[in-house]
Automatic annotation (TrEMBL):
<feature type="coiled-coil region">
    <location>
        <begin position="14"/>
        <end position="91"/>
    </location>
</feature>
<keyword id="KW-0175">Coiled coil</keyword>
<protein>
    <submittedName>
        <fullName>Uncharacterized protein</fullName>
    </submittedName>
</protein>
Length: 150
């Protein structure tokens, strides 16, 4: 009987240690599960954060493309404006040269003919039907020939 009692005691102690080991294992597994759940929550938050950043990046890329289009359009407009400005400047420069040449001619004519007054002369006007008129008025009337002999 003592042998059976010793065996039962050993079996009981073995079962007790086994149960304690299982309980400790379950506690460890529960702690690991809790830790993994916390990590998964953090990972989920990080993934959401990454998704938001990716959306922001896509929005910025789209905005960048729009701005590039606007810049190209503005550069084309700038080129057109610079071309117009150069053309206007060239026309204005031509007019200035005409005025300078006209003033020189008036001074030279005044030198050769001091008794004639040249102050009524206008470099922009033309002689038409015996009078000084704007060139636009002659073109509007349909007369495109100017009285060069007058």
């Amino acid at each position: 009987m003592q042998v059976y009692a010793a065996r039962l005691l050993c079996i009981g102690r073995y079962d007790e240690l086994k149960a304690r080991k299982e309980i400790e294992q379950k506690k460890e597994d529960s702690a690991k599960l809790q830790k993994n759940m916390e990590r998964e929550k953090k990972l989920q938050l990080a993934m959401e954060h990454v998704a938001l950043k990716e959306k922001d990046v896509l929005d910025l890329k789209s905005e960048n493309e729009e701005l590039k289009g606007k810049v190209e359009k503005l550069e084309k407009d700038k080129t057109c404006l610079e071309a117009r400005e150069a053309e206007t400047s060239k026309e204005h420069h031509g007019y200035e040269m005409l005025v300078v040449g006209f003033e020189r001619a008036m001074k030279q004519a005044g030198f050769f003919f001091p008794e004639v007054k040249f102050d009524q002369l206008d470099p922009i006007k033309v002689v038409h039907n015996g009078a000084l008129v704007d060139e636009d008025e002659v073109d509007a009337e349909g007369g495109d020939d100017h009285d060069l002999e007058a």
